[in-house]
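Quick one: structure for this chain?
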Amino acid sequence: MAFEKVNGLPAGDEITLPGSIPILDVMSSNVDLMEDPDAIDLLAPAGPEGWRDDLTPFIDEEELNRIGRLVADETEEDLKARDEWLEDINKGLDELGIRREELTKPFKGACSATVPLIEEAARQFQARSMTEMLPPQGPVRTETLGKQTDELCRQAKRVAEFMNYQLTEEMEEYTEDTDSMLYYYALTGTAFRKWYYDENLGRPVGRFLRLDDFVPAFDALDMPTAKRKTHVITTTRSQLRAMQLAGIYRDVDVRPSTARNSEFEETVDEQTGVDRKTHKGDGDDVILLEQQRWLSIAGFEDADEFGEPTGVDLPYVVTIERDSTKVLSIRRNWLEGDDKRKPLEHIVRWRLLPGLGFYGTGYIHLLGNIQRSATTSLRSLVDAGQFANLPAGFKTRGTRSPVGEAPLAFGEWRDVDAAGDDLRKSMIPVPFKEPSQTLFQLMNAMIDLGRRLAAVNDVTLPDGGSEAPVGTTVALLEQAHKLMSSMHKRMHQSMRRELRILARINAESVPQYYPYEVDNESREVFATDFDGRVDVLPVSDPNIFSEAQRVMRAQSVLQLAQAAPTIYNQRAAHRLMLESMNVQDPDRLLLPEFVAPPMDPATQLLAILQSKPVKAWYSQNHQAHIAFLMASMQNPALQALASNPQVAQTVQMGVMALIGEHTGMLIRQQMEQTLQIQLPPPPEYSQDNPSGEYQPLPPQVESQIAQHMALAAQQLAQQAQQMAQMQKNQQAAQDPAVQIALQQLQIEKEKIASRERIEMQRAQQRATDTQVRADDADADRELDRQNMMIDAELDRLKLQEESANAAKRILADAQRQRGLT
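Got it. Here's what it folds into:
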């Protein structure tokens, strides 16, 4: 285990303690062994002087024995209750594949490669989390509580600067400790960190506790409501004796503990290649159990308003030696004056994903089975490929011993008891198949499933590059990283709890005035700055879990600002973009904020060409400025710049914006002259004064003036239009080019009139011809009608004649018949 400094030792003593440090606050203790070694025996029997002083000198020995046995027994129960959970963790660590391995089963030389899904996910998570949780400028930001004042804002700034200095400069171990914790945290899904004040170092310390060093109650659901929380500390008898002499622990005889490495520790050692079994040690280790729990202690019971015990347990920190169960210290674990007796938190739990109980779910649980299946497929494919390339089989060697039971290795030809005269009969290769394509696809499917579940898949962005909609890109990022987003929110909450504990420790330990230096710059902080009026928060955004997402959001804001520049602060939008890109000191890249002074028209144009800010002022001659700017836009030298679209756009936008300002102020002056009234001074808008500080008129007066202005504006508009038309006509009359154009226009009109006359004559001729043709058509139709009538009459006469002839024939035939008869 890691070694740490010990709390509560006199200045100048250097004592280290393996494991994390007991939760002690001995700053209020008046015991000084350097001045009076016997002071520990002179404590007043009435009770401890300091609120968090050790209570054991004032508790009956029998009561101490009861408490010691209770702590030891319940800790043992809690340890046994989580054996299965730790066993799963140990199995998962064995399957990481970070240690070189040679397999002998199912045959010697078999593939030992591992699909590193868990390791990949853990390292990706570790890299992302370090970037977001520990930025270079520090992980702390502050917010003021209550009404904001200048003094409160300065206090919040001092708190943020000091805590960032603590975590990035003063606490040198913090970054490395956090880095290690995030790796364990990603693998196991649970991590714990303990915060305390180290007297030797003279500053707060935060230490990551491994899983075998912290034991919660077996039925715990979360940290605040857990009945007990036990920290297992390993130290030596010498170090323990030093703390006893310092008054931190009770002076009792303690023997070395029968300590052995935990299974978790042995698994970690195996993965890292460390063999603790070869180290015999000196047999001087002592194991302490420091437990935060609820107790009712005789003589220190909770009492009602009449001083009678209520039977309600109170929060204490109890430290015992594990084997002998001897109590070493008991201290109160709530703030003095807190009627609710709320336990002080010293250890923060981090959970990657919520599980079904107290512990979280890590990548070992999330990806364990998928990695195991993918690894089996990978090894089968590699082995099949090896056998296909290096075949093995049997060969005859006369009649000798039969084949053994051991499987064949790559390229092996084994003797068998058989004889043959043909080489093909004497050497029989075992039929090995080529690597299965189906198995290969199945392995890839499992790998993709695992990477998608762990949120480490690459995001496919839409086509279009920079032209792609920012909202679509952000939506794709969020959709692909929902799991990572939820993890980041939990980390943010855990980090927030840690920072609040650190702020509480600072409130108890920071001197009334504490100066310090950062980058050769003197700064200061006061003890009163940690009075609770300033809330400390992680600088990370719980809604943003990656730098890419942060840049996309800033780019979206910048696009909105550029689309509507009148309602956005352009400087703030660009500064947000630079900050999201982690640009150090973005203000040095931005032009300084200032209000442009009154300038002559030529100087204003020069400022626009140099991309400097310009502004119209009410006292200027607006007509002259407008005339100059309009004429300048017709200058060939400026028009030559239009060949560069970017320069042309910048110049045109700047000039038109300035003309608009002058035009608005000119109209306001014309209103004052037309109505013969004096309006309040106009608003002078600027970056520092966005509201303009305009003195409003009374509502009734403003309403009357608005009505008169509406009428005056119409008159001014009509006058301006008439004047513009008159000027246009005058200019046209005096301009030779215009006269020539008018003459050409007249000639064109005459040509058009001549063409119209010719077209009219042609149309009349066409109408006459048409009438003649129509008359001829009528005559022809009449003639045809008469011919038809004549033909019809001839046909009728012919028909009559034929009828008469037929009658004559019939009559003649009848007469012949009568004559014959």
